[in-house]
Amino acid sequence: xxxxxxxxxxxxxxxxxxxxxxxxxxxxxxxxxxxxxxxxxxxxxxxxxxxxxxxxxxxxxxxxxxxxxxxxxxxxxxxxxxxxxxxxxxxxxxxxxxxxxxxxxxxxxxxxxxxxxxxxxxxxxxxxxxxxxxxxxxxxxxxxxxxxxxxxxxxxxxxxxxxxxxxxxxxxxxxxxxxxxxxxxxxxxxxxxxxxxxxxxxxxxxxxxxxxxxxxxxxxxxxxxxxxxxxxxxxxxxxxxxxxxxxxxxxxxxxxxxxxxxxxxxxxxxxxxxxxxxxxxxxxxxxxxxxxxxxxxxxxxxxxxxxxxxxxxxxxxxxxxxxxxxxxxxxxxxxxxxxxxxxxxxxxxxxxxxxxxxxxxxxxxxxxxxxxxxxxxxxxxxxxxxxxxxxxxxxxxxxxxxxxxxxxxxxxxxxxxxxxxxxxxxxxxxxxxxxxxxxxxxxxxxxxxxxxxxxxxxxxxxxxxxxxxxxxxxxxxxxxxxxxxxxxxxxxxxxxxxxxxxxxxxxxxxxxxxxxxxxxxxxxxxxxxxxxxxxxxxxxxxxxxxxxxxxxxxxxxxxxxxxxxxxxxxxxxxxxxxxxxxxxxxxxxxxxxxxxxxxxxxxxxxxxxxxxxxxxxxxxxxxxxxx
Amino acid sequence: xxxxxxxxxxxxxxxxxxxxxxxxxxxxxxxxxxxxxxxxxxxxxxxxxxxxxxxxxxxxxxxxxxxxxxxxxxxxxxxxxxxxxxxxxxxxxxxxxxxxxxxxxxxxxxxxxxxxxxxxxxxxxxxxxxxxxxxxxxxxxxxxxxxxxxxxxxxxxxxxxxxxxxxxxxxxxxxxxxxxxxxxxxxxxxxxxxxxxxxxxxxxxxxxxxxxxxxxxxxxxxxxxxxxxxxxxxxxxxxxxxxxxxxxxxxxxxxxxxxxxxxxxxxxxxxxxxxxxxxxxxxxxxxxxxxxxxxxxxxxxxxxxxxxxxxxxxxxxxxxxxx
Amino acid sequence: xxxxxxxxxxxxxxxxxxxxxxxxxxxxxxxxxxxxxxxxxxxxxxxxxxxxxxxxxxxxxxxxxxxxxxxxxxxxxxxxxxxxxxxxxxxxxxxxxxxxxxxxxxxxxxxxxxxxxxxxxxxxxxxxxxxxxxxxxxxxxxxxxxxxxxxxxxxxxxxxxxxxxxxxxxxxxxxxxxxxxxxxxxxxxxxxxxxxxxxxxxxxxxxxxxxxxxxxxxxxxxxxxxxxxxxxxxxxxxxxxxxxxxxxxxxxxxxxxxxxxxxxxxxxxxxxxxxxxxxxxxxxxxxxxxxxxxxxxxxxxxxxxxxxxxxxxxx
Lengths: 627, 323, 315
Fold this sequence. Notes:
The structure holds three protein chains of three kinds.
Chain A: H1 2-10, H2 12-30, H3 67-103, H4 105-119, H5 123-134, H6 138-165, H7 168-175, H8 180-216, H9 228-235, H10 244-271, H11 273-276, E1 288-289, E2 304-315, E3 318-330, E4 335-339, H12 346-352, E5 362-371, E6 374-375, H13 381-387, E7 392-395, H14 399-402, H15 409-418, H16 425-438, H17 444-447, H18 457-469, E8 475-479, H19 487-504, E9 507-512, H20 515-521, E10 524-529, E11 532-538, H21 539-544, H22 549-557, E12 606-609, E13 612-614
Chain B: E1 3-16, E2 26-39, E3 43-47, H1 54-61, E4 69-74, E5 77-79, H2 84-88, E6 91-94, H3 108-118, H4 124-137, H5 154-167, E7 172-176, H6 184-201, E8 204-209, H7 212-218, E9 221-226, E10 229-235, H8 236-239, H9 246-254, H10 293-297, E11 303-304, E12 310-311
Chain C: H1 2-27, H2 34-39, H3 45-55, H4 61-73, E1 79-80, E2 85-86, H5 87-122, H6 127-141, H7 144-158, H8 176-210, H9 213-220, H10 225-262, H11 268-277, H12 281-309
Antiparallel strand pairs in C: 1-2
Helix pairs in contact in C: 1-12, 5-6, 5-8, 5-10, 5-12, 6-8, 7-8, 7-10, 8-10, 9-10, 10-11, 10-12, 11-12
């Protein structure tokens, strides 16, 4: 709760809203105590006095009534009406929505049919019909506005409830012996409540407008009693001659609703967990570059040379150093594996190459990426764009999420071709069919017109590969391309990749967490831990004789087929969080060989043999020269 | 030794799509009628790819999904009443996604207390004592009790999930992909914890996973599921080393392994059959190199062989043959 | 696609029936003798008796509903006692004016709202985003009837750019430029709130979509940024924007009631308010059912547009 208030206070606009609405509410509450003229006493002799006249600060209306007094009493009434309508609608609507969403099935069907019926009316028609039946009047307008808004809450809350009702913790509660009523009140409601509060805070303003609207039409509060809407309605006939009688109540409505909207947005932002982590910002076309220090030169003349790459995520005042200085290089036609657990920085390294790290919050803060001899970190957007997909192509993890759901796969392939080459559509289509054939998609001629949702996971990933191949790139960066697939499909995809690589002389950077896959596909491998490479070398040598304790413990953790029932080796503890890395070796806290020196300071990646490097003061298996 | 769990003819089908004007509903048979026993103290591994029905099976066993046909016998008592509260004291469930199985708005203590209060009606002091006992068993510090789920890593959250299952005092645990959301270094910690708990409390496990090597490492026996049906059951140490059903062989061959060259073990492009339009006969026949006309006509039943293995195949592989 | 349209049309039938039941039920809430309520307290006993017979008011609720429904299906919406003419004639006369006002407003708010939302999202936290966000906040906070009144004061009375009110001049030609001259202010005033709401939701839909993996894929294959925003992202965002347009059409139609009052626009909204104040129940009943039915039909168009956009919606 205090965290919520803090978040709200940080939002200056919301604070402004809070102040606006606070003053208005305070005035409304104090109205009966203030020395005001009676709002309903008419004095026709004093009609249409302008503002700032003697005895009437805001002037008088067409019946000579004091406008200030009427304004404050009217504000009081409008606020009360709007709030009451919002509370009634939110309570009823949420109850209906939760019941429909939680029970699902037939209950849901019947309730939601009814709600849909009500929503089939433009809302004012329903309100007008209710007022027509019950007769004009304040209470009837209130009932009408509340009733009209019930379906909006019901539908909104039902959607949220359905999502929650399918969460595993609801199943867990059921297994813990809780009944439906207890689950709804104890498990569902606390999770739905923030959404109800958000929905209410963003609709209270709207309800005040609606009740004022009905009064404006003469269907709400009846004379002589006034709310802001009826004041405006009565003033309308004198709009041209005496505009102040209209402007006074109108401006007050504007202030109230604006204040509520500002505050409501603030409440929404403070309660929405996604906004807290800054996750609702959209990534820009290329990752922001904020390089400090000199740009390192390429260390090798390889096709792709990554030197001292540093990428971090800046969330609020924290800096997560996802990649903390990585050196890698890929020669033409070679296959490099990058292996690591989640959070080790392997994907971020790969995405940094073409500036595809989501930014904000990602920032490349150091190092260089030389492609074909030129540094492309911070290169102009058009330079990067021309390289993306043309020279360096990507294959991503989840093939359902990475293909555009609304375009045919053929169109997506053709677009990949035409982004870099002006070829007529028919020629591009013919090439797309060839590409689909090259990844062994059966019936490529007809499959090209399928949508992604019509394909299986394996087929979609083949399309992903075909798209990466579209412009005959030099390097393909594959970011866990088989992780989302079943083993039998994974085997098929790996075989396609392996064949293509040989046929086309592709260089591949293959990111994975699976030693088996690296062992089968890659020539060399880099092991990452907490944003840095801890070990590097030819695949066979690294897997057979791991030199870094992390590599060797990790290999021991992974069960391999054929070992039978057994106890597995485990690494105690957890990987460090990269916004607070220890000095020295990041693995020291989990390592059984760690000494004081390990925690003292920076440890470099040192060569321990031809092509082999390790970031450890006490490497293992080094004496064996069986590389 | 009695059977901890005995399933007879258990099946589940879901109605799918919308019915247009009097046409019959279409059904997807997520789990075909299935007989299975799990002995007390045993770990039965269930392995299969996505869509093979393994999670549906698991949910039926704890009463979260009512079966379409068949019955479930737990420790000798038939449970015909699909009330999770009754199931809950005998059999518990550990979820795949450890974070989403914990209510984000409750403290760990509230989460742990629910089964103690609802299922066992324990008083406040008894609950506290029992929770410390369980937390000690799963190596969690008691200071965690007053924190909220989002403060934990996946591995810790999974320990909490296991602790909650233990709190119900069930002797059978259904472990539904308990480590597949975890990193390998943490995965081993959780698997070892599960093995220790089994020893300590004399538990019976049904361990569901898509990872062959993990299943092999923890199970006594393994059942291979394909398209909603068991195609092969056998002792863990033999079933993948010496598969008899061609599908088991395909799985074993597909698992990536250091040092084995990449080869596509079957026709490229053939994947799971469409559940709305299941193939006639053996569900695997389209992907099988040994399929005959009979396989395309009839569905093979699960039958035992001499080596304690059960296979649903007309042309099983030779037990001596190399993979 | 034809199959889908037919199916949606068929599914509209129960909705239309539901609407008629709801309206009928609400009208049954009227306290006292319905015939007196309909004809007013000065009605002659003969007229009351005739109406009772025509509407089956001496019968039960269900029977009355079916008589009413049957009459409506034959095009007989009853007779307005205040105007002394058939309800349907009056509604049809007025509906054209409302359609012109609401239709042009709807077009305006859809185009402006979506464009503002896309630009705002593409330049998140930039100057354009901040300006749009502020304008939107102002737009959704100002009551449309107050905005309309202020516009009359400024643009009609002070600056004399537009006529004060009405759809046509009392004397003079009735042609398109004249109509547009009269339409400009009310259409704009009516569209402001909906523009704001659409811009807000379009912005958040775009932000949501721009974070999706397939946007990264498009960028990774070298598609230029303008195309990424206006083709890839907007198309996917339209899936959530189109239903909003459907809902906002209802809000525009609702707001038209106020705007018609402020600008003396001869539409159905004003007719309904007058009818309520005069207790002309049959006119209210008929008007509400007619407009609601039109709105249901419009929503079928929205659904069809959605199905054309998203192939995953199966026929």
